[in-house]
Amino acid sequence: MIDRFRLYAKGGEGGSGCSSFRRSRHDRHGRPDGGDGGRGGDVILECSATVWDFSNLQHHVNAKRGGHGTSKNKIGTRGADKVVRVPVGTVVHLVEGEVPSQVEHRSSAALDPWEIPGSLDVDLSVSHQKPASVNPSTVEVAETVDIIDGSSTCIEQTVEESVRKRQATQVSSSVSLPQSSPSNNKSRILNEDFLSYKGEGGSDPEIVETDDGMSEPELEEQREEKEQIQYNVAELTEEGQRIIVAHGGEGGVGNISSSKNSRDHKLTKLGAEVSDDDQSSLGIGSPGSEAILVLELKSIADVGLVGFPNAGKSTLLGAMSRAKPTVGHYAFTTLRPNIGNLKYDDLSVTVADIPGLIKGAHENRGLGHAFLRHIERTKVIAYVVDLAAALDGRKGIPPWEQLKDLILELEYYREGLSNRPSLVVANKIDEAGTEEVYEELKRRVQGVPIFPVCAVLEEGIPELKAGLRMLVNSAESYGLSLDRISLD
Ligand SMILES: Nc1nc2c(ncn2[C@@H]2O[C@H](COP(=O)(O)OP(=O)(O)OP(=O)(O)O)[C@@H](O)[C@H]2O)c(=O)[nH]1
Prior knowledge:
CATH superfamily of the largest domain: GTP1/OBG domain
Strand content: 15-25%
Strand order of the largest sheet: 8-14-4-6-9-10
CATH class of the largest domain: Mainly Beta
Helix content: 10-25%
Radius of gyration: 29 Å
Mean pLDDT: 72
Bound molecules: guanosine-5'-triphosphate
Number of domains: 2
CATH architecture of the largest domain: Distorted Sandwich
Structural class: alpha/beta
CATH topology of the largest domain: Spo0b-associated Gtp-binding Protein, Chain: A
Low-confidence stretches: 106-210, 262-281, 330-335
């Protein structure tokens, strides 16, 4: 599971404007008829419930450049947007570039063709309308789409026709399939020099193997410590939500538009050539914006089930909700968080069963940080302990020590992480000898409610659900702290 990802995004360059003259028998000098270049595509992040993590993303994403303007007043096509689908709960941190902006959702009926980027109004200072949503059923993990509100659009129309008729634009579809990135588990770093990558048409840059034995996530973290990152600039929490992370450049101005300027108009009317300088400044499309982002995935759940592997968290989630998580008698059966819904008469509470924590997780052991990040976004912590872990010569540790270690891991990772409403679930009460362990647990751990349950037989579940509801509603607040746990 990849839950942290570095993304380099580059908007498409604007197409060049055209310089051309239409001559006739009656007009030897000719009239300017070169169309404007099309606007470059945007790089868009789209929130999708069908995407689980960042493993299908490419590190470098380029939107397409706009088409060049041509003679007979034809405007260049708008560059295709690059839509990158990310999971629900993606948080965006900005390393370099502009803060992302929201894509406006508008129906095609409400869309005025005159507002289409790169169309007739060549006022470059005006910010153009953003495209609305694509039909999600037609796209995969990443795609290129020419979009105008749900359909793909290439606009190629003559200026004069448009002025006369003001009719709908000619639309043509082009949705291309995603390119999945190859997975590479080797220790490696991606070439940091984004500049050297510019203009290489979206192919991944040179991959440099490291010989210092560090894993890629470790290198990422080390690099991020040196950078000045703007944290949490955007959050994608709802299916279909879209943000633009890199904007396409504006198309260059063709000489039909530039001739509207009185100075140029006079010059062109007289048949004089526009100077080379003017031509280049008017004709060339502007480059798209660039951004370097760190995407981070955090679960969004009311309650997080926190416990060592095999404590019975997945079984418990299945007993409380309709979720069907994988259950196994070996550690790390759960490799990604399962989310379950607890239904009450007037309320619904989401519960995340988060991959098993082990000692040393704060140093990234086991599932380490991947696990700890998910905890950050839960309101309530339910510590799940195995009452039978140390019984009958088993190698586990007693539940009060499990609790101490769990709190320490959370606190080592981020101070204050365990400071939130909590309760303890004492699981496996059905096993012989656990009654005594439960009594001792109550004696040793103070200040939090403890619920004895048997997850496999679904015993004690209604009481636990009532307890969770109380905490989520903030009617009562209990917290588990080290000083309330008595150890030998
Ligand atoms: N006797 C008994 N066994 C249980 C109970 N709850 C779970 N188990 C067993 O404990 C083992 C681990 O259960 P899981 O639900 O996969 O544990 P987990 O905490 O989700 O484990 P990870 O996925 O590794 O984090 C399985 O063999 C379950 O059948 C219980 O109430 N009583």
